[in-house]
Amino acid sequence: MLNTKTSKAIVAVSDPDRARDFYQNVLGLELIGDGMGGVMAFRTGESELIVYPSRFAGTNQANAVVWGVDGDMDAIVADLKAKGVVFEHYPDDEWMQRDGDIHMAGNAKLVWFKDPDGNILHLNSM
What we know:
Largest sheet: 5 strands, mixed
Domain VOC: 5-126
Mean pLDDT: 93
Pfam families: Glyoxalase
InterPro entries: Glyas_Bleomycin-R_OHBP_Dase, Glyas_Fos-R_dOase_dom, VOC_core
Order of helices and strands: EHEEEEHEEEE
CATH architecture of the largest domain: Roll
Distance between the termini: 29 Å
Protein name: Glyoxalase
Oligomer: single chain
CATH topology of the largest domain: 2,3-Dihydroxybiphenyl 1,2-Dioxygenase, domain 1
């Protein structure tokens, strides 16, 4: 039944104004709706990212959102780094090594970073 329905990512934040600045100006997402107590919708490719205020913001210890960036990884990482984004670095292991801010796993390039509330955001290029 749900296989024909569109899904959206949703992220909890503590400060909607700070989140708006980050998602709109740092990540470059288009704000397509706001209201209802600080809830915002951003266009991201062909889908939407919903950002909403919550006292539980930043408590998720796993990936909150993932973007497939195809061959644009290096340019996107450079752009985000120039805007002050700090990337997460994880230890090398048998299946993943790091080159600068980009982790490599076979043909895949992977990066992780956090929004101002500590939500883990992930980019991958396969």
